[in-house]
Prior knowledge:
Layout: E1 14-17, H1 20-28, E2 33-38, E3 42-47, E4 51-57, E5 68-72, H2 76-90, H3 93-99, E6 104-110, E7 115-121, E8 127-133
Amino acid sequence: MGSEPSSRTMQIPIFPSSGFDGTAAFYARIDFSETNRFGDDYLILEHDAGLELHFYPAKVKPRTNDHGAYVRFDSLDELDALYKRWNGLTNTPAFARVAGKIGKLHAPVDTDYGLREFALLDADGNLLRFGAPHGG
């Protein structure tokens, strides 16, 4: 008790996927890499911003999917840089092809509760929200 942990703790969301190939293609368009695939049972993707996403196979109704996760950054600069990078990557015909009817990157907003937030909705309707304190 009282000693500091020797490694960083991560929280990793586990989302449903209607098809691992489509999921991997969607996230590859925003710089995620497939690090593990266990047949048709499990998929793991990673991003160099320290993000890791896990997926399991499921029949998904994208418009009613209620799975989501929140990723909080300590640095507003990191958050803004990630959005800027993804915004450039998602405004392309190649992204539109893998985004399906609902996959979309939503622009950042400064909230009245002190966070700047943006959101990513994938083709299966999984919601990832990102935020950082904006100090104003």
